[in-house]
Every structure is written in structure tokens, then in C-alpha cells.
Amino acid sequence: MFVFRLFSLCLSVITTLTSSISSESKTLLTCSKFHFEEKVLEKLVRLEHKMELFEEKMKTMESSMSKKLKRMDEIEKETETLTETMLDKQLQIETRINDSYQESIFNFKTQSNNETKLYGEKMDSLFDALSLKSQTLSEAEKERERKMESMQRDSHDEHKWFNTSSDAIVKNFKVQSNKTLQELILQQQKDFNEMLAKRETVAFSAYRSSSQTLSSGEKVIFDGVWTNVGNGYEPSTGIFNAPHPGLHHFTAVLMSDYEKDLSLDLTLNGLRMTRNYLHGDGYKTGTFDVVLNLQKGDKVHIESSSGYTCTIYSNSVKYITFSGYRII
């Protein structure tokens, strides 16, 4: 581009000079030789000056273009450096996200395994305690039967001995003996009934195989039942109604919907005993684990906390459960 302009300028100058010389030639007849040479020299000086100015402009333009090209090279290098830096940052972020995800999965599995192991140990301990109580009750019942046999033998011996006495003594003794024996039998029957009442087994374990959206104060319905000894749990309402008084142990495993909060209360006769609140990313799990001293007819259930509308998550895997049993 610059060469073309230079060539055009030179051509223009030569054309002008030629035209000027031609014009001067026509006036040679009227001008002296010295005057002509002076004019030609003046033209050449002017042309040389113009050429010098043009060369300076060309040098200035070349210097400016060189600087601009150098700056463009620097910008290109900076762009390449920035691109490499951005790629490194992107790789670091992807690596960090992947490591964080793997760590979260590992922590969740570890926590789940620990909780499962802990609940298994608790259940084993409780079943051992229940077996020990049952064994103690069996031994007490055998002891009662042994005493009953002993009393019956003693009564039979006394009855024989009283038969050898006089009719009056026998009659009086029979009256007193029958009264005492009747009282003993009634007392033994009462003790036996109380013992049977204490040995009444109450246990239930229920689950839910689908999600449930809860409004404020709405009950969680665990409509699937694995165990319901004593018929204390009602799967259509989600309420446990204590058929016998005593200490009861309740546990529950809960799961929130994906990236949703969950707030649930375990209630006794409509009063909140404890609350479980889940908050954070992804699916969250929570538990209830309480021991309550119930009277016959007391009602226990799980419901959405007051002022909360939430969804409890489950599917065919049965993520959420509600269980309880009578300890003694």
C-alpha cells in the first residue's frame, strides 16, 4: 500500500516536472539560457525538498506501524497467556468440584454406615435386655407355680389332719381354711394377671414407599406395616395408640425432598416432644430417637411443624420408617 502511494507520488512529481520543463522549453525563445537554468535548478531544489519531506513522513509512518505491530504482538502474547491462565483456572475448578463431590459422597456413605451400625447395636442391646426380662419373668412364674404346688400339698396335708379332729373343730376349721384359701387363690390370681399384663408385648414398625406433601400440622402417614404386635399402630392415620401403660421406645428415619427444607415434630397427645429440622443441598436424612412413659390410650405420631409446608421424600426403596416397642 505504501509502495503504491510512493510510486504514485513519484509519478506525479515527474509528470509535473516534465510538464514544467516542456512549458519552459516553449519559452526558451523568449528567455535567456541563464534564466532557464535558474528556473530548472529552483524546480529541482523544490522537488528535492518535497522528496525529503516525503521520506520523513514515510519514516514516521514506518515507525508508527512498527510500534503498532509490536503492540499487536504483545497483545497477542497477552491474549495467549490469559487464555492459558483461564484454562488452568477452569481445570482447577473442575478438579476441585470433582474432589468435593467425591468427598461428599464418601462422607454420606460413611455417616449412613455408622448410623446403621449404631442403630443395629442399640437394637441388639434392647433385644438382649428384653430377652433378660422375659427370662426373669419366666423364672418368677416357675417360682410362683412351685409355691402354688407347695401350698396345695400343705393344704392337702392339713386337710387330712383336720379330718381326724372333732366335727365342730372340723367345721370351724373348714370355714376358716376355705376363707383363707379363697383369699390366697384370689391374691394369686391377681398377681398372675398383673404379671401377664406386664408381659404383654407391644411392637410396631411401619414405612412409607412414596413421597407426601404436608401442610402445617398434617400427620405423616406410614401406610406400610412390617410389624404390629398388639395392634397399637393404625396405618391409615399414622397414629400409635398405647394398648398398655409402660416405657416405650420410638425411632424414625426421615428424608427431605431434593434441595428442600423439612421440619417435623414427634408429638404425644398433640404436644410436641421433639423436632427434627433438615436444611441444605440435595436429599437430607434425619432421625427421631426417644423413650416415653405412656399411659394406656396415649397417642404418638409425627407431623409437619406448625407454620411449615414441606414434602417428605420416599419411594419403593422405603427411605422413611417409624418404629416403636414397649420396654416394660
Question: What's this model, at a glance?
Answer:
Keywords: Coiled coil, Secreted, Signal. The protein is of the alpha+beta class and 328 residues long.
Describe the structure.
The model has no long low-confidence stretch (mean pLDDT 83). The longest helix is centred in the first third of the chain and has 131 residues, at 33-163. The protein is α+β, with helices and mostly antiparallel strands. The chain has helices at 2-26, 33-163, 167-198, and strands at 203-208, 212-214, 224-229, 233-234, 239-241, 246-255, 262-268, 271-278, 285-294, 299-304, 310-312, 320-326. A hairpin with a 2-residue loop joins strand 7 and strand 8 (271-278). A five-stranded antiparallel sheet has the order 3-1-12-6-9, with no helix packed on it. A five-stranded antiparallel sheet has the order 4-5-10-7-8, with no helix packed on it. It contains three helices and twelve strands. Helix 1 packs antiparallel against helix 2 and helix 2 runs antiparallel to helix 3.
Question: Which descriptors apply to this entry?
Answer:
328 residues; Jelly Rolls; 3 domains; 3 helices; 57% helix; rod-shaped; coiled coil
